[in-house]
Amino acid sequence: MAGPVQSIERAAAILRLLAGGPRRLGLGEVAASLGLAKGTAHGILRTLQHVDFVEQDAATGKYQLGAALLHLGTSYLDVNELRSRSLNWADALAARSGEAVRLGTPLEGSVLVVHHVFRPDDTFQTLDVGSLLPLHASSLGKVLLAFGTASVEPAQGRGLEAYTRHTLVDPERLARALAEVRELGWAAEIQEMSMGEAGIAAPIRGHGGLVVGAIGLSGPIERICDSQGHPRPSLVTLLREAARAISRDLGAARW
């Protein structure tokens, strides 16, 4: 039986690397992260760029996932029941709250963003569909961790990554935060993944009340939080109403 094709393995590793970060990566960063020679990494990136799986920023020369790859991902996501039943509610939540809405499910120790509704204004925004977010540093991830839909144990084996000085990397502090999420019924991230950014999320439940995903609002901290740095109660209320509505559509009993 033929073994794996090394070039395809390397191409897949590059795509995973680009999907796993919140920013574009340069050639040197890609090569160093994967232990590849720059020439090898550049050749694979050029091939991926040729088929539109990767795009290169003209100004910086850095790389990000391309439109063709996102289209392939969307063709899978379109058949995902969670996403399809959430579309209308997510659109309505963005319109009512004035903030960006993201829907997440667990994937390989991260949060996969399966739907993203832009904030309804004219500001520049980047589509997050297909992005992977850290479980411990995102409000979507905290919901999945708190209700047992995902586990942070694999990450703890190599230590939790600190994205900012506010990221919860101590297991005991994270455990206390997750207990609070279960008590409140929603989670928050305040500058834990990116300085100046905040988010809140609530669980989406399916049959039997099991948490199958999370829906969240995200944006600049001054929009999501009040002057005391606490999530605005009005946004929390809108978010939880949307989460309950989606859950009912998925067959969860009222709670």
TrEMBL record:
SUPFAM superfamilies: GAF domain-like, Winged helix' DNA-binding domain
Location of the HTH iclR-type domain: 5-67
Domain IclR-ED as annotated: residue spans: 68-252
InterPro entries for this protein: GAF-like_dom_sf, HTH_MetabolicPath_Reg, Tscrpt_reg_IclR_C, Tscrpt_reg_IclR_N, WH-like_DNA-bd_sf, WH_DNA-bd_sf
The entry's keywords: DNA-binding, Transcription, Transcription regulation
Name this polypeptide is given: IclR family transcriptional regulator
Organism: Streptomyces incarnatus
